[in-house]
C-alpha cells in the first residue's frame, strides 16, 4: 500500500518507515536481561486517553514503543529491555546524543507493526506507548501483555507533546519530580535561545519537508513547530489553515502551491531523498524566502534531533540548530 506524505513525514523523518516494516533485533527475546528501575514513589496514576492507569510498584522490565519513549525513559534513569528505533539509528536505537546510555542493549521492536510475541517474551511489567498513533486495538493488545501507558487525551496521530510525554513517563516510573526537572531543563535551553535572539520573536516560520511523494509542512502542535516556537518564531498562519492529512500532524502541499510556505523563515528537511532534491527543485528556488536567503535545509544528526524531540534531542537541537538559523535570519 502506498503511504501518504503524512505517513512518510510522520513516521519516518523520522525514520519510522525503515524500521516500521523491519524485523526485530537479532538477539533472542531475553537479550536485554538486566533492565533497570529507579527508586521512585508508588503507587502512581497516569491519566491516558484510554482511562487512568495505576502503577503499584516500581517497574523493573520496561518496554518503550512510542516515538522517543525509550530516550525519555533513559533520560529519567530507566533502561528499557525493549525499544523501538523510529529513526533507524541502528545499534541501541538512540541518537548520538544518547549513545552509551544503555548498560545492556535492548531488544529492538518493530514500530508500526510490533511483534506482540516478541514483546511478551521480554516479560515486561510496564509498556510505554505514549507518543503513538492512539490505535485502540494496538493499546488493547499491549495491555493484555502488561500494564500499558498509552497516549494522553488529544494525543492521537503522534501529537503527544514533549511535556506530556515526559510528565506521563516520569509519573509511570515513580519520579514525577525528576520529570519536572527534565522539562525545565529543556524549557531553559529553548528560552536561552529565544533570549539571545530577540530578533526572532514573532517572525513566521514554516517547518517543511519533502519526500519522494512531494512536499508537506507541519502544523502547530507538532514537535518541529513546537521547537521553532520555543525559539521565538510563530507558525505560518497559511500553513495552519491547510487541510491536515490522514495522520493528523502535517499538510500536503503541491509544487504548484509551494508559495504557501512563504514565511520569514523556512526550515526544510528531506525524508529518504537527497537534500539536493530540495535545493535543486525549481519551485523551491522561486520562493522569495529562498531567494533572499531566509530558508535553510537541514539533514543528518540535526535533522534527526529536530524530528525526534526527546529531551536529549531537544537540547542537542537547541545547541546546534540556532547557528544555522542565524545565518538565514539574524537574531539580533
TrEMBL record:
Organism this protein belongs to: Kocuria coralli
Record flagged with keyword Cell cycle: no
Record-annotated Fe/B12 periplasmic-binding domain positions: 61-329
Keywords per UniProt: Signal, Transport
Protein name: Iron-siderophore ABC transporter substrate-binding protein
Residues in the signal sequence: 1-24
Transmembrane residue ranges: none
Single Gene Ontology BP annotation: iron coordination entity transport
Alphabetized Pfam families for the sequence: Peripla_BP_2
Listed CDD domains: FhuD (cd01146)
Family to which the UniProt record says this protein belongs: Belongs to the bacterial solute-binding protein 8 family.
Record-linked InterPro entries: ABC_transptr_periplasmic_BD (IPR002491), Bact_iron-sidero_bind (IPR051313)
Source species taxonomy: Bacteria, Bacillati, Actinomycetota, Actinomycetes, Micrococcales
Cellular compartment(s): Cell envelope
Principal location: other
PROSITE patterns documented for this protein: FE_B12_PBP, PROKAR_LIPOPROTEIN
Gene Ontology CC terms: outer membrane-bounded periplasmic space
